[in-house]
Structure formats: C-alpha cells, structure tokens
Amino acid sequence: MKHQFIKAAAVSPDIKVADPAYNAQKIIEIIQAQAEKGTELLVFPELSLSGYTCGELFLQKTLLDGCMTALQAVAGATAGKLLLVFVGLPVMRGGKLYNCAAAVGGGKVLGFVPKRYLPNFGEYYEKRYFTPAPEGYSVLSWNGADIPFCRDLLIRDLSEPDILIGCEICEDLWTGESPSIHHAKQGAVIIANLSASNEVVGKRNYRHKLIAAQARKNICAYIYADAGEGESTSDMIFSGNDIIYESDTLLSEAAPFDGGCAEAEIDVGYLLHERMRNTSYEPLVIDPQCLLSCSFVSEGELSLRAIDPLPFVSQDEGTRREEAEVALELQAHALARRITAAKSKTAVIGISGGLDSTLALLVTCRAFDLLKKSREDILAVTMPGFGTSLKTKNNAVALMQALGVTQRQINISQTVLRHFKDIGHDPEDTDTVYENAQARYRTMVLMDLANATGGLVIGTGDLSELALGWCTYSGDHMSMYAVNSSVPKTLVKHLVFAEAERLGGRVEVVVKSILTTEISPELLPTDDKGEIAQRTEDIIGPYELTDFYLYHMLRRGDGPAKTLCLAERAFEGKYDRATLKKWLVSFYRRFFSQQFKRSCMPDGVKVGPVSLSPRADWRMPSDASAALWLSEAEKL
Q1: In-domain check, residue 544
Q2: pTM of the shown model
C-alpha cells in the first residue's frame, strides 16, 4: 500500500480434517475475497491444507500427495494478484516428514519453511510424525522445479525491498530461541505465524502477552493465524483466535469462536523508523540463498486502519485517567528531587489563569506535599498587563487561594511603558517588541523573587509551544526547571482535570472555569469589553493538528505526504485538505526556524513518548534547513 503500509489478514478457514481438496477450495475462496479487498499478505493456520488433528493419517502417502496437489491449486489462485500467501501442510522430503509453511505468490510455490520446534508434551505429540527443521539451505524437487526448503527463508517485495517477511510455526513462538528473533535481525519487519493453538482457560490472555512481547522486542509486526473450529474435537478444541500486532499495539483480533479473520494495515515505515533509531537493535547478515523476492505490495489506499486524532491522549477513559496519574507523579517526583538537590527554600511560579501555569502550579503543590513542605513556600505571582482579561486574572487569584499558596500580584503595565520610553518604542505599535517586553519583564520579576527567597523559578511552557517556538526567547522560554516541557497541549487539559478531580472542592470548581478559557498569551490589549483579543490557535493553528503533526514527525518518523494522508483520515469531516495542508506547512516552517529556543531550553522531566530536550531526545542544529520538508508539503 501507499506510504509503506501493508494490508494483512490472518484467516482461519472452515476446514475438514484430512480433506485437502475441500480445504484448498475454502482457502482459494478466501484468497479471492481478500484479493478483492486489496490484501497484500495473507496467512492461514498451521497444517491448514490437511488439518492439524489428522493423527496417524499424517503417515499416509495418500494424504501427503493430496496436500501437495491442493497446494498447487492454492498457488495457482494467486496468479495475477499482488498477494503473498502462507499456507500450512505436511511435506515429505528425504524420507522424513516436516510440518511446513508454504509461501505462495504470483501463481507459484515460492518456498517451504519447516517447523523448528515440535511440541511433544501434554496434548501435543508432533514428534510422533514430524522431524524438526534441518539447519541450512536446501531444496525440494517438485513438479519439475527446485523449491527452496529452509527454516530461515525471508521473502521481500520487488518494489519495496525493505519490506521483508519471515515465518515461523506455532511452537516456534513459544520457545526461548524463537526463529522470529533471527528473522527480525536479518531484516524481517513482519513475522507470519501459522499456528494450531488449542483453546483452554486463560490461554488467550497468555497468547496476547507472548505475541505483544515478541513483536515489541523484535520491533516488528506479528500476524498470528490460529486453527479454527473445523479441527477435530476428540481431545482439543480450536477457536480461530487470529491476532495482528504492530510492535506491542494490537491492530486486530478475531476473538475465539468469532469467525476467524483478523485484518489490519501495518505501518512498516514506522517499524523501520523504530529500528533505525534503536541502536540496541543489531542486524545479522542474510544468507542470500534464503532470500526470495515476490511482488505483493500494491498502491492501494488505507481503508481499515483507524488513525487517532489525539495520539498523545488515550481514547479509553480508564487508561487516560491512569496515564494522567502516572504523568503527574513523574512531574511531581522530578520537581521534588530538583528542589531537594538545589536546597531550594521556595518555588516561584507565574500564574496567568491559563492551562499551562495551572498545571505547573498543581504539580508544584503535589511536589511540596511529597516533600512535606508547606505550600506557603510556593510563591505564586500573577502579573497582569496590557492584555490580561478579567476572567483569567480572577481565575489566577481564585486558584492560588484554593491551593493555599503564597500570593503576589504585580501589575507590569507601568514598568513596561517606562521600558518602551527608555528604548524609544511607540506603545501604540503592538509589534513583537510590544509583546516580548511583557514576557521578558515577567520572567525577570520571577527570577529576582526566586533570588530573594532562595527559590527556583518553575517553568510553565509545554511541549507544543516548544515545537512551534510559541514562547519569548529569554522570557517565558526560560526558567530554572520546566515541569511541562514534555507535555503536549492536547494532554495538558486532561492532566489538569485529573488533578483537580483528585483534589476536589474549590480547586475543582476553579479549574473547570480555567478549562473553558480561550488559549491566549494575552499580550495584546483586550477588547472594549475586557475580553481576550489574541487567540493563539488563530495564529499558529489548532493544537490538535500541531500535536498530531509533532507526534508523527518525531515519534513515527513520518514525512509530509504520509502525515497529510493520515491527518485526512484522522480529521475527516472536521478539517478539509486545504486547511490541513496550510497548518502542516506552517508547522514545518515554525519547527525548523525555532530550534534555537530549544537548544538552550531548561531542564525538564520527560514524561511521555516525545521530548524536545537537546540533552535527551532531540539534537538538531539551529540553522538546519526546512526546504526539503516544505517542498514536499507544498506540493501536496
């Protein structure tokens, strides 16, 4: 698919035990249906052409020959299709029987992958019939062709050579030295598992943990096709619990006894990006004999994948609350440690009545509670100026009172006007000088108060503002510890709400008022009614878009074209393409031009998946050019 997505499916066909012709027909019907959907990678269960529960029938030549004939029919069904298929069957070679996955595509059998680990305990007795996969590369001569027979087989797409597929079979996953570890180190970014895992109480949960862990540590996607209800129930029952993971994220699952079909679109580009940035991931050299090529990647559009418009915020309320508590704990403990290390007597913080300073104050109160220090040692300062609205001023005062901190109010208007006179600036000219002078004076006030009280200035700016440079250099850009520096704007309100709910009472009432306030730096004069005249999102774009673009650039390594494509799906019906493109171009322009502010940003704890600290996640020269990104974005 486009942008290095792969449309994949794991399907459990309704088979008949020991009836290869019937099973092949069912599999061919599924191949036809999946091809029409644009599926590029299709995985069937272990021994799906014969059935897993054949028992002594596996030793019957009639069954083995029937399976090979059925395989030829299945391979023929892939002719003329951009589709790679894995199907399971017993294969005789050199007088021994092997439990194999056959890779088919382009109308032919590409290769055989024999199972390496054979369970022979409990209800399993595979060693009664099968031989473990031999080492090294060999071939199986069949139908006039020498077909690769190798447990290390990898298949890549001809047009996208970085898209490599590896394969293992059922028990291979459950062992300590799974073949998929070797496959992934050789470049396999997707692992197909043909399985026949019977269902018992608790096994589904364990299965998920195992697959998620395997996919995460190998930085790959994992497609697990499980045997379904057509198997014999003499001693076991199979449920068709098909599962697809992308790293540790569950993309799709067919619940037990629910039809046996899991479909998903795997973001291979993201997985490749993760491997590139993870220096602990050490690749191995591929044996060229074990590397096959096949055309299976198409130019289809995304149709299945749900794109989260708020990637920094969990959509599940329970998870969101849990993650909010963890983030607040991290922020508070980090600040508490810094206060202790610096031997600070006080914490000094500017309170505007907006979300960011509210979060910073709530975190500071939590830190002081951890240290068993009096909240009276928190000096909260509100500094109304030319653009301060009555609502934000009142909210700031009410919040400080509700939290029981020491309050100070310092009106900066007259001092800033004197500063304009000193530098010869016309106060009627509400330009950058007009705005930044207020922010810088406020920071100076806080710094001097911190010096006077033996304290630390607590920064309030968030991750989204740092990304866009929406802060005044050496003004609100600067502090002595920046507790919100890795918290994006779309997450700030959820953290504020969660902490307010925890505290309850008057704090919760005030915070709910703050949550309804327009986001603004309040640096331009208010209107005739004393209301906010400067609206941040009118200038730099909606924060939900900024955070979406930021996440996909930094966390997933997506370029402009892919990001815009995903944004169209995520915000369908809310923003049109022109609007999305406008703010995408703006995002890249601002992100590159404002790096100089991030290069000297103060310390601040990382609490989420992304940080812009020059000492941690993001090292970038301040004079890097945005031309390549802007060129791609503007052509879209």
Answers
A1: yes
A2: 0.93
